[in-house]
Amino acid sequence: MSSVIVSSAGLTKRYGDVTALDRVDLEVTRGSVYGLVGPNGAGKTTMLGVLAGLRTATAGSTAVETASIGVLPDTPQFDRWLTGREVVALSRNLAGDPVPPSAVDDVLETAGLTDAAGRRVKGYSRGMLQRLGLASVIVTEPDLLLLDEPAAALDPAGRREVLDLILALRGKSTVLFSSHILDDVQEVCDDIGILTRGQIMYQGSLEGLLNRFVLDTFVVKLRSGAEDVEQALASEPWVKNVLVEGDKKVVVDVADVATAELRLVQVLAATGHRVVSVTKGTTSLEDVFLEVTR
Amino acid sequence: MSLWRLEWLRLWRTQRLMILLAVFGALGLLGPLTARYLPDLMESFGEEAVGAVPPMTPPDGITQYMGNAIQIGMLAVAFIGAAALVFDAKPEIAVFLRTRASIRDIFVPRFAVAAAASAATFGFGMVIAYVGTGVLLEWLDLWAVIVGSVLFMLYLVFAIALVGVVASILRSVPGVALVSVGALIILGLLSIVGALAPWLPGALVGAIDSLIRGGEFEYWRSIVATLILIAAMVPFAIRRLEAREV
Questions:
Q1: Domain CATH number, residue A56
Q2: Average pLDDT per block of 10 residues along chain A, 294 residues long
Q3: Nearest to B95 among A54, A82, A93 (CB)
Q4: pTM for the full model?
């Protein structure tokens, strides 16, 4: 069994003159949670649609090494006159696999919909529909889940529930989900692909991405005198850039971390201003995303 | 829960079955009532009005029902067929179905249940029209009514198949229903070409009127042509829907 469950080579999709996907080479490892990140209009939904077989590629190829796929659109909708339980039961039945009927109630419980299971879908909130959508995908026990913005437009509690459901799938299925909410991706993903204007700008492990783009910065908090500190640091050869934020905070971008660790405190002491703290700057996925897509 | 049960629930819970029953039931009641009382009604408007309406005969109870069924009933059938067969109208629902079942498995129950419901509710209206005609006017040849009704039911199945084809081209329920009705009207107009008329599905529409008046059974060509068209249109619609992107 191949360790790669989804791949694409030179995948291109055009809608008339608009190129939604431009020679995308994607590789998703079996069992991983892969986050496809990008701004609105980057081509994420098109990418998932092509992989799900709902859209045809203009050029290039895709390989999906399983027939057991669950797909969740960004705003799941169902026939309004069905109950939640009927939606999940229909999904289970259509999957064709020998999933026991008891799985329906189990999945509804996992999705926190047991109490609402007998109610018609037309009375469901946005978050409940999202969880019902996820339940209807999970009940088929797919090898691969393609989730399009599964937590977008949900309130914090709803988002938390959906992310927990995704986290619970780790190790059981491969999850490929698109999102523009970087905190969500950073929380649940093993691997990441950054898609912008139809092109993959980065692909690999989340950890590798953060390490690759780690910014060597120090954040200095002072009682006062930020401008004096800026002047003192600007003349140091190991300093690349100094950014003053108000009168009490200085962000120092350094060229040589080792030298900075030796000299920074000395330079600060020489200015005579009171130092509250010196911390090494951390890199968030948001920082990296902006760097990569700039 | 299967796709067949889903279609039955769609008919029942959306009240569509009740709508069809109400439409054809009302038309079935209205047919014989019109045939029996229209002359009396016109008499109240004076002698000139009486002359404007041809004298009513017992078969007119059924003829009146068919006249309404082909207009109002067909519009209801087209809308209810479209509501079932346009499953790509909402992409999110289309994704749910298309990623779990083949287009054939989705389409066939929708087509079959919509066609069966249309035919059955038309039959329900015909029973009312037949009994009403018998009670108010005169009992007609039951066999002619049954054969004529079955032929019109076949036409209804053809109409639903046509709705399916239009649904494979358009994605809006009203659009599909109205274009389908338009296409049926245009097909009906083709009957002015004399040589073509016996082969057209539209020939089945007038069959019952002729049969209850003692006309000969001369619909084999139309039956064969309609069956061939249905057999061609269903796979055509399925292939088009398979090729459609969501």
A1: 3.40.50.300
A2: 88 95 94 91 94 95 92 94 95 79 89 93 92 92 93 82 86 90 86 93 85 78 92 91 88 87 92 92 75 75
A3: A54
A4: 0.83
